[in-house]
Each structure stands twice: as C-alpha cells, then as structure tokens.
Design goal:
5-stranded mixed β-sheet; mainly beta
C-alpha cells in the first residue's frame, strides 16, 4: 500500500518516490499520511519529515515551512528551504535558526 511523495523546491525536485507513510510537522501538530488519505491542503512549520517504507524510516528531511497537498494517491510538498537530515550541518555563526534546527535534529521521533 504505497503512494507517491514529491518534495519540490523552486530549483528542483528533491524527492519523488513511492512510500508507505510520511510524518510531517504541521502548524497545528505533526500528522501522518498513508495511501488513500482524505484530500487536504495545509502549511508546515519548521521541523522534521520522516519517510517510511516497509515499516522502517528510509529518509528524513529538515524543512523550514512549506505547503502540503494531499490526495488519495499522492502527497506534494512545496518548500523553499529543505535539507536531508543527514546532510545538515550547523554554520559557524550559530545564529538562532541554526540553533533551533540543531535542537530539532537531536529529537528523533517516530522511530
């Protein structure tokens, strides 16, 4: 029971694969999407996205807001700022955003 997840930035398609489950950081709390989910449109807050296949986390991303459209066979995330969790490195400046992103990455949920 899989569906297509597409993550798109203004520059490129970051992710386009069939998956079993995705958990995203909604503005009103985290939510999960499975195949045949009721269609909806919502905003994301800064947080982690967890992608599952065969009951295992296969990838995760750090997103800094975005818009998600869900249909019964697909999920599309539009964002300007996203990075794979394993590729994220805090800058030497240690500004407030980098500190927040680092703090979020230390909290691993849904594993």
């Amino acid at each position: 029971m899989s569906f297509n997840l597409e993550i798109i930035t203004p520059d490129q398609v970051i992710y386009n694969e069939n998956i079993d489950l995705v958990i995203m950081p909604g503005i009103e709390g985290d939510f999960g999407i499975l195949k045949n989910h009721m269609p909806f449109l919502t905003y994301l807050r800064l947080g982690l996205i967890y992608i599952y296949k065969e009951k295992k986390i296969i990838d995760s991303f750090l997103v800094n807001t975005g818009i998600v459209e869900v249909t019964n066979q697909s999920c599309v995330l539009l964002t300007e700022d996203i990075v794979r969790s394993k590729d994220f490195k805090s800058s030497e400046k240690n500004d407030e955003m980098d500190q927040l992103k680092t703090k979020i990455l230390k909290k691993i949920y849904y594993s």
